[in-house]
């Protein structure tokens, strides 16, 4: 029996080109996570108010996923990618007027527009990658493409740390509050200009990539040639497919867990290091180093887990890793201090496989329903819109340690989905 290639030769160049998008949205996600803490400091806001960055950022995914799927069905994956890149660039470039206002709300609009573009990209790229070859290798192919997402994420974290967090004014919120209003306004203006620069640069880079995709002719897969989209009938089939329904639920909880762990590691680390006597800005910068370490572990684990899928069913490996995530978050809650921070970093090793594996399990065998099925899974990224503000509110009232009960609950849900899907077709289609 001939072994089926993960990426057939005729799709190799398109696969490489589309896979580059995974790094591009990884960069956006992880330059933005630390902005919860940065905006809270610059504009003197609570953890809950700062977490509205994530509500706006992931709200764009939720809002645009279904329109993106309808658009892609009417036109093509390529058209979806071009539209997504255009919105992504516009959102980034709008940071220029937003920073002039010295107000938080325009930045939220920028993040929302950016992720409307990212929703187009993810709704297009994920099923397109799965379609580039045999159905048997689709989940492995998506895991391979997703393995490049953390590379962009690591770059985003590095840029946030080096070009934003370490450069904004180092005064504490208490020291800022004691300044004359004119001096404080000047500092805020300077800090927002520092924050703006990497996003504007990113917008220019995205425009260059848009030109590359506009000039390169991607192959049209047969699934691009759907004769219209029957939304009611398609969703009727999807909601009878408990494998897909469970996948949407599990994906919402996974994204929530991921964003909470990567956003609030800075709050957790800052509390640990300031308790040891470190200055607040130094503690924040060091905490971002731990976030970068967590992403490096995530990246290594993604490649390792992709290899392990040759020997284990996706559902079984998903279940084991979710159990590991439950254990590490309990360590974060109850051990505390630096050991608790190490547990939080280790959680990233457990999360590495989750997004593409849930995605692959849920879309398995959907064929022409995959576009709307994919939209449902991208809408599930809205979990990153709802859960970080909840954790921010818990941090404000209960403290940072206990707030990690929310990621723990998310891992419980994912473990149950993995258990249900531990055998092929364990959930009836």
TrEMBL record:
Protein name: L-fucose:H+ symporter permease
TM stretches of this protein: 12-32, 52-72, 79-98, 104-121, 142-164, 197-216, 244-270, 290-309, 316-335, 341-360, 372-390, 402-420
Membrane topology designation: Multi-pass membrane protein
Name of the encoding gene: fucP
InterPro entries reported in the protein's UniProt record: Lfuc_symporter_FucP, MFS, MFS_trans_sf, MFS_TsgA-like
Chief place where the protein resides: membrane
Pfam families: MFS_1
Keyword Lipid biosynthesis: no
Keyword list, A-Z: Cell membrane, Membrane, Transmembrane, Transmembrane helix
Subcellular location: Cell inner membrane
Natural source organism: Rubritalea spongiae
Gene3D superfamilies: MFS general substrate transporter like domains
């Amino acid at each position: 029996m001939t072994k089926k290639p993960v990426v057939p030769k005729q799709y190799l160049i398109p696969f490489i080109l589309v896979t580059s998008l995974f790094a591009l949205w990884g960069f956006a996600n992880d330059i933005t996570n630390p902005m919860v803490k940065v905006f809270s400091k610059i504009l003197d806001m609570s953890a809950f108010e700062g977490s509205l960055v994530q509500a706006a950022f992931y709200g764009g995914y939720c809002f645009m996923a279904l329109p993106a799927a309808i658009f892609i069905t009417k036109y093509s994956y390529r058209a979806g990618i071009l539209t997504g890149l255009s919105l992504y660039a516009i959102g980034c470039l709008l940071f220029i007027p937003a920073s002039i206002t010295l107000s938080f709300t325009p930045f939220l609009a920028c993040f929302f527009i950016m992720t409307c573009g990212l929703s187009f990209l993810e709704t297009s790229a994920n099923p397109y990658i799965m379609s580039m070859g045999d159905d048997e290798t689709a989940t492995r192919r998506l895991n391979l493409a997703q393995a490049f997402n953390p590379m962009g994420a690591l770059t985003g974290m590095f840029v946030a740390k080096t070009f934003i967090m370490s450069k904004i004014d180092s005064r504490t919120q208490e020291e800022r509050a004691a300044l004359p209003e004119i001096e404080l306004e000047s500092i805020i203006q300077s800090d927002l200009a520092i924050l703006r620069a990497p996003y504007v640069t990113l917008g220019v880079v995205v425009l260059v990539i848009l030109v590359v995709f506009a000039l390169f002719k991607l192959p049209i897969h047969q699934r691009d040639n759907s004769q219209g989209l029957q939304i009611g009938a398609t969703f009727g089939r999807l909601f009878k497919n408990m494998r897909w329904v469970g996948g949407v639920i599990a994906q919402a909880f996974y994204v929530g867990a991921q964003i909470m762990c990567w956003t609030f590691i800075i709050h957790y680390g800052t509390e640990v290091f300031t308790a040891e006597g470190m200055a607040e800005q130094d503690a924040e910068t060091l905490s971002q180093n731990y976030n970068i370490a967590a992403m490096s572990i995530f990246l290594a684990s993604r490649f390792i887990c992709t290899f392990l899928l040759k020997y284990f069913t996706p559902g079984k490996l998903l279940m084991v890793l979710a159990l590991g995530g439950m254990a590490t978050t309990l360590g974060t809650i109850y051990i505390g201090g630096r050991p608790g921070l190490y547990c939080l970093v280790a959680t990233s090793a457990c999360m590495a496989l989750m997004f593409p594996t849930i995605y692959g399990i849920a879309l398995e065998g959907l064929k022409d329903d995959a576009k709307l099925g994919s939209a449902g899974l991208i809408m599930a990224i809205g979990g990153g819109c709802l859960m970080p503000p909840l954790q921010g509110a818990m941090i404000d009232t209960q403290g940072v340690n206990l707030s990690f009960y929310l990621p723990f609950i998310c891992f419980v849900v994912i473990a149950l989905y993995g258990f249900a899907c531990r055998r092929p077709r364990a959930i009836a289609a």
